[in-house]
Amino acid sequence: MSVRPMVRKWRVLQRKGIRGWAAARGAAAARLWRPLRGSAAARWAGRVRRSSVVRRITPRYPRPGRTGVRRWLPSPRQWLLACVWGLLALTALVAVGYERTKIPADLNAFATQQDNVYYWADGTEMARVGPVDRQAMPLDRIPQGVQWAVLAAENASFYSDHGVSPKGIARAVTTMAFGGSVQGGSTITQQYVKNVYLDQDQTISRKISEIFISVKLDRRTSKQQILDGYLNTSWFGRGAYGVQRAAKAYYGEDVSQLNPSQGAFLASLLKGAGLYDPSVSPANHARAVQRWTWVLDRMVKTGHLSAAQRATYTTFPEPIPPPRPAGLGGQTGYLVDTARAYVTAHSGISAARLDLGGFQIYTTFEKPKVDALADAVSGKLATLDPAGRAADRNVRVGAASVATDGRILALYGGPDYIKQGFDDADIAIVPAGTTYGPFVYAAGLRDGVVRSRDAPRARVTPESPYNGDDKVPIQTPEGPYWNRDGRIVTTANAGHRSYGTITLRQAVAEQVNGPIMQLGMDVGLNQVRQASVDAGLLPDSGFGEQVPQFSLGTATPSPIRMAGAYATFAAAGTHTEPYSVRRVTLDGADVPVRHGTVTHPFTPKVAGEVDQALHDAVRSGAATAAAKAGPDLAGLPGTAPDNTSASFVGYDRTMATSVELFRIDPKSQQLMPLDGIGGRSPKQPGSDLPTSIWTQYMGSAPVSQAPSGRAAAPTAKDDAKDGKDGKDANSEKYAGGSPAR
């Protein structure tokens, strides 16, 4: 090997100012220069090695001239060099990743749609829902006001950015670095890429692919094409993909007919249709109005809506009610809605992904029971005369059956899902009334009572005596209870009947209000409230002011929740959160679905004593009218203190059923009293109607089916694996309906 060419090469490098090559260490460098020892090239390399530049950029460890720990601590210059090299490595990594990332060839692969199929508990098909509602609309037919509303809401710099937002990326990286969830795409280009090229998994690798594809797509595709694709593929809720179908779903019009105000509302839905569809709940409506206002103001700020135009849009453009899909008539639609809400709240399947279809959803609903419950309700309502009697108008019934293992077996949500979309089995504005008494009794037996200041809690038993007379002053540890009007509060028995001294078990069985009110004060209304939550009511079940009347059922749990709570007593004190879906599959593979927790809020002894009182109520107490439904039944009728509801809640050894009857003013959506319903005396309670419905249903409903081995009820092992669900955010139904079905 000739030395002369190598010397010439090093001299060229030296003239260009590139130094340090000869400073390379290691076996390879040694082998290279060994044959050149003593040559001119070797002498030149030695000079390079001794140069000041090389010495500056070459780290020396341990650091000479230092002692102790300082020998091993990098100097500021070394830290700077490390950062420079790290930045260079990161730049190289990004360049390689960008070069290797390809834009997928099939833009529409995600759009292959199927129905979602719902099955009864016995495995037979219940309903098919789908396919996805989609219709493309050219960008030139989408009004500019709608386009700019979307841009103002989602990505005001769309026409000037390069497909990604450095600020958004930095925010996402920061969130991930501190343990937060992976953030979604900030720009419209990123969201479009996620919609049509990638899946919805919240992973770092998916986020990196999204960024690279977005940059490449922005370089190769016009902004108009990207915006066109985004507006035609985004999910707007109500099963609608694309702005054209969204316009039909929310306003019943072609998108070309929408004004900027309506466009601002549709743009609001892109932030999360489940949170901003006003038809879902009053909370959703408030959020939608706030977001709509912000979008319009933002359009003014970005210069795409004049202040004069903005001043004309002061009234929120209320969308039309959601359309009801065909094939969901009768009770089926309520069942599908309940199962759908459960799936989105208890699995990794989002509402948008569920709308894409392809899932098989196996529910807990038993068709014979659903049919029997619907027949019992419709048969009793048929005896009313709304045409000839004003008190019989606007009468509604909600009912639910929940097994002792948590399966929701049957629902009655209304006369027909197509005619009335609000699910009355899940409504949470109707007072529980005196069916709340067993929770007060259970709290007393479990927690004891305090009757004097600073005294320890004392135990009560089913045989503890209480004053059952009417108009007895309510007592507290400090003395009589005074209301805000300066009057002593007294007990109020039904019909103002007095019973003398009776035991607590008798008070529950015969539904004597006075002892229940006093027991609630003795136990403490906080403890009473907690006992009912432990039994199965939701913490936000409309619990009213904690005054003596609280124990008479001012709380407003749904029929589903009341049935689930009574099932706790039937199950010897074990509570299983109600659930409506046993299993979900996609392409034959199981999709994990979490079930509610199993808890033991009451000992078998306490639950057994409550159970005994409820059995006494059917045998010889306030619920004897229900005895003809069969043997071994337990339950209580109930009326609200203001007579705005009537109910019956009871159970056999396999399931509990709650029936609630009420009236709602169609204009104000407020509860109306049941005075005179069915032609009875205004002073007569209406609880005989739900009692009759419950009795007929329990007498005709077939025996409950045991869950199959592949979809059994959740066990303690399942609970440990799945964890606690807490309050589910999946169903803010009409008037604040109960989540977690």
UniProtKB/TrEMBL annotation:
- From the UniProt record, give one GO term of the biological process aspect: peptidoglycan biosynthetic process
Q: Name one GO molecular function term.
A: serine-type D-Ala-D-Ala carboxypeptidase activity
Query: Where is the sequence biased in composition, kind Polar residues?
Result: 689-707
Please write the reaction equations for the catalytic activity of this protein.
Preferential cleavage: (Ac)2-L-Lys-D-Ala-|-D-Ala. Also transpeptidation of peptidyl-alanyl moieties that are N-acyl substituents of D-alanine; [GlcNAc-(1->4)-Mur2Ac(oyl-L-Ala-gamma-D-Glu-L-Lys-D-Ala-D-Ala)](n)-di-trans,octa-cis-undecaprenyl diphosphate + beta-D-GlcNAc-(1->4)-Mur2Ac(oyl-L-Ala-gamma-D-Glu-L-Lys-D-Ala-D-Ala)-di-trans,octa-cis-undecaprenyl diphosphate = [GlcNAc-(1->4)-Mur2Ac(oyl-L-Ala-gamma-D-Glu-L-Lys-D-Ala-D-Ala)](n+1)-di-trans,octa-cis-undecaprenyl diphosphate + di-trans,octa-cis-undecaprenyl diphosphate + H(+)
Location of the region described as Disordered in the Swiss-Prot/TrEMBL record: 456-485, 670-741
Give the record's family classification: In the C-terminal section; belongs to the transpeptidase family.
Q: What is this protein called?
A: Membrane carboxypeptidase (Penicillin-binding protein)
Q: Which organism is it from?
A: Actinacidiphila guanduensis
Source taxonomy lineage?
Answer: Bacteria, Bacillati, Actinomycetota, Actinomycetes, Kitasatosporales
